[in-house]
Amino acid sequence: MKLPAGAGAPAPDAADALAQATATCRGIRTLTAEIGISGSAGGRRVRGRLSVGVAAPASVRLEALAPFGAPVFIFAAMNDDATLLLPRDNRVLEHGRASVVLNAVAGVPLDAADLNAILSGCAPPGSQFRASALGTDWRVVNVSAGQVTYDVYLRREIAASAWRLLALDRHGPTDGIIRVEYRDFQNDLPRSIRLANTSGVKENTFDLTLALSQLETNTPLAADVFRVEIPPSAAPITVDELRRARLGIREN
Questions:
Q1: Residues 118-165: tens digit of each pLDDT
Q2: Rounded Cα–Cα distance for residues 113 and 166 (Å)
Q3: Which of 208, 213, 246 is nearest to 38 (CA)?
Q4: Longest Cα pair distance anywhere in the chain, in angstroms?
Q5: Which of the 8 DSSP states describes residue 224?
Q6: Nearest-angstrom CA–CA distance, 8 and 95
Q7: Digit-coded pLDDT (tens) for 201-229
Q8: pTM above threshold 0.85
Q9: CA–CA gap between residue 166 and residue 185 (Å, rounded)
Q10: Rounded to whole angstroms, how far apart are CA atoms 19 and 10?
Q11: Contact criterion met (CB below 8 Å) for 135 and 4
């Protein structure tokens, strides 16, 4: 997606534009979907299917589905407390940091709050500290959320049309810039999402396209959805072991 660049001019209407662009997604308390994923992560091709459920403000469950049998993995997090189960290997990681665990198993350093905002096509909650007008039909709103900042790109087709959130850049303290791009909107929600971090060390780069289907919003989800039932026989696994397995690194 080609985004405008430059310092721009002051944008006194940016707060109203952001509110308009996020009016639908701000009302989403839960979201469930099937996701087809394709692209690359850590220099390796990725293709698969996910079953996902998220609940505001920061709960998520991801299941990496296999053609037959048990899921490849089940990842669940509430706030920053994550559990990962590998049913086929009967291994488990408990009480890990959500972004660290998801990065180790899937190559994407996002936490539950990030996934809530990204999958619903919304700007993460935070405080606006700067806004720019890049021409008449683009606004860039800078949002701060703790140690993470976001450049939120808004666009309208013509002066009389509504603003839409088309992309954001997530600036993290350790993981560089993650670009999120939205396409194929239906009922003001995106059905195609691109996640990319193409700078830095090869093993930390990714460029993934998520195709959302069977999307439902505001369906009640019990708290148990975001907990993983762990078999008593499951053996522990570490973040380093997960990362080595994802990258195909053999132990000596």
A1: 999 998 878 877 899 998 899 999 999 888 899 999 999 877 789 999
A2: 19
A3: 208
A4: 64
A5: G
A6: 44
A7: 677 899 999 999 999 999 999 999 999 99
A8: yes
A9: 10
A10: 17
A11: yes
